[in-house]
Amino acid sequence: EFLLPKNYINIELTSPIAYFDPHHANLTYMFSAVFMDELNEYLYDAELAGIDCSLYATFSGVILTVKGYSDKQGELLNKILDKLTRFNVDSDRFYRLKERFSRDLKNFECEQPHHQSKFYARHLLYERSWDL
Length: 132
Prior knowledge:
Blueprint: E1 6-14, H1 22-38, H2 40-48, E2 51-57, E3 61-69, H3 73-85, H4 91-106, H5 113-125
Antiparallel strand pairs: 1-3, 2-3
């Protein structure tokens, strides 16, 4: 495990409207969820090769992270960026993930107390934040 060539690539895509209001914040989250679902076939093979990828929503947009063995990261990153530039949302996939997100929001009160406390601490500390 030691002295193996590994990299960590972080790309932040920012947008002034990503967290402008609750509607845009949810759309940013849904974009990241739908896009990651679209990438599943690439990411499974990449994971077997020792490369991990994630895309998650932030207050300023989305962050794409690629980490792992460096020899094939460039190829995976090129495929991901190519997919991103040509991305079309599949409506069935969107509605399936939207239902899961909606269910997760409704089940928030059933979460472990430490998850709830982290959410409420962020809610109190951030300048722009919305309650469930």
